[in-house]
Amino acid sequence: RELHEYGWKVMLWNTHNLLPTDPNYKYGDEHGYFVKGEDGKTYNIPEGYGAGGCLDVTNPEAVAWWNSLYDPLLDMGVDGLFNDITNYIDQEGRGRMVFSDGRTSEEVHNLYWLLFNKITYEYMKEKTGGETVLRVAGGWAGQQKYSTVWAGDSAATWQFLERDIRATLASGWSGIPYFGYDIPGYSVPEGAPSPELYMRYCQLGALSPLMQFHSIARTEPWFYGEDAVANLRMYGWLRENFLPYIYSLALEAEETAAPMARSLVWQYPEDQQAASIQDEFLLGPSLLVAPLY
Q1: Distance between CA 156 and CA 59 in Å, rounded?
Q2: How much is the pTM?
Q3: Distances (CA, A) of 257 to 114, 151, 268, 282
Q4: Average pLDDT estimate for 200-218
Q5: Helix axes 60-68, 105-128, angle to 10 degrees
């Protein structure tokens, strides 16, 4: 609530699983609220971020219990959540996890993202009176009804900056208009990003549907020098001044499903050259974005 006084909103990382050491795990296990194995017992994913028992999203009682775990956070003033890691469901593709409705993890693998995002968003919307936002790293057909989406763990490299442009356009064609990516790239396979890469990511982000900083590397501009500070100050100011325009595009997307970031061929379908261009786009009908990379 103190952060709210300064105009900040609070969003927390959220996953679908509980480790056996979590104080809430025992209750969920005893009541059958986690996905089971072929032996009828809770199937604990052995390792990784998705380790432990996984919420059975097809069990209404399990969903109600799980949602109640958010209440203390909401009472503290948390505004939104971002869902991650549900790709660990049946990662080996063997269908060894069994849901309460009889389907296996092989059948529910892709749907799990969508169902988990749906129950999360609907509960948060109910509890906050609609004043919430959900950010997710994946989904399935119909995902756009429940959340914004980000590109997952992009790397802090020039190659991934280009890929994030294409991912933004592909999401728009797929009916997901509210899309972003990690600035300046999440993972660091080649070490910390250079100041130039950091600045180019900031410029691209400022003129994308969503702008978000999230990385293993430092995200504060002063770690990249005075030029980076000046660059972010200018492009942050630019985005702030474009927000009414960006907001109008969000409303248009809600009403018509038009992408916010539009491939050139969307705007110029008769232009054969436009159909081959994948590294620039129109933000709405009026602003051409041609990133440098």
Answers
A1: 39
A2: 0.90
A3: 19, 20, 17, 15
A4: 96
A5: 50
